[in-house]
Amino acid sequence: MGRICFTLQVRADRLAEYRDRHAAVWPEMLAALKAAGWHDYSLFLRDDGLLVGYFVTGNLDEAVAAMERTDVNGRWQAEMAPFFVDLPDGRPDRGFLVLDEVFHLEDQLEGRP
């Protein structure tokens, strides 16, 4: 399983609404994420709008493609797009910047680089 961390930038004037929307994500979207292999998924939001996401998946490309095949994802992305700054394709799920993992405690404790 791979650990994926990504960033996006939420518009400063939409932070409260963004938080509210994620306090009750559509049940259909939650089910689709789980079925597509997005495990241990969390979002963290800083007061300046920096959004950091984290999830575990067997294969990032397959997990993204599985979500792309769902109707609910298209609807959710369309609803969420106005919350973000600088989305190249106009969709958050295509505009996040994946970060390189440089340290993981358990890996090093087990002798893995």
UniProtKB/TrEMBL annotation:
Query: Which protein, by its recorded name, is this?
Result: L-rhamnose mutarotase
Which InterPro entries does the record cross-reference, listed alphabetically? Dimeric_a/b-barrel, Rham/fucose_mutarotase
- So which domain of life are we looking at? Bacteria
UniProt-listed PANTHER family: L-RHAMNOSE MUTAROTASE
